[in-house]
Amino acid sequence: MKSKMAFKRFDAELDTDVCDPYNNAELTLTLRMGFRQINPSGGAAEGTYHDYGKATAPTRKIIKWTDASWKTWKKNFVQSAESFWHGKFWLINDAGAFSFTKSGETYYPNVWCRFKLIGNDASDGSNHHTIDVVRLHPSESWFGSHESLYDSKDTNLTRKNTDSKGKSVMQRAHVHEVGHLLGLDHVDVGKPHCPASGDTNAGACYGIADDDMKAVMGSGMQLRAENAYPWRESLRYFALADLLKATLNPYSYFISPQLLQAPVASLTAVWPAKMQRHYPRTAAEVQAGKMITTRPNRKP
Questions:
Q1: Any bridge partners for residue 3, and if so which?
Q2: What is the C-alpha to C-alpha distance for residues 110 and 269, in angstroms, rounded to an integer?
Q3: 100 part of a folded domain
Q4: 218: CB partners within 8 A, 6+ apart
Q5: What is the 8-class DSSP label of residue 256?
Q6: What pTM was estimated for this model as a whole?
């Protein structure tokens, strides 16, 4: 069965039709981004634009987008960002949800996290987010970007910080920004040096310890299991809908006794994220609290 839900930041689709003893359910988040060119004023070939789009900030030299450069940049942005976030997480089924039976045995599929990024023009009414993009002059190496203002070099691997051993911490800024669009905060948000209610764009929020600094939601490119948050939170809605479908009386507005007797795990499941494939769980594995990554005579 395929189920769809629309959220503010993205759309989500859960596909359980693909489930069998070797294949998990698939949860795809689809993010539609609308890109809009920022060009020099008056149709000029070259000009300037303020950092962060603020009139009080320094200016950087920009050049006019051509049809070819715009098409190439968008394609590179979409393909590389999608590739970075797609298929990296598996959510472990600790809820006993979406069960199916095959050859007399009941299975509980885990959930493979997929990602689809669609790059539209800003005028497309279906976009979840609209982003302005400047094309930097070759002489410019830095531009003040923010969540809705990017530059043409954001897809390049760039040094963002230096760790405690003096080594460069590199990042392609666009994958970091897509993480924000999916709902992820900077790696150290919530820690004493980066309160959640303060300036979460302060340098300290990008990671103080080396491991945090190297995280993709810090200054680096390393994914963490915690980055599965957008998929996990979306999945909770699908799991709840599955539970309600199984336990609500379709002929009444009242909750059925079955819902009141539902396992607590169905309502308080964590759906822990792993960065390694795990096969669908058997009833015995769920009861024992174990997970497996292989099955006899079959490679993962």
A1: 14
A2: 13
A3: yes
A4: 161, 169, 186, 187, 188, 206, 207, 212
A5: P
A6: 0.89
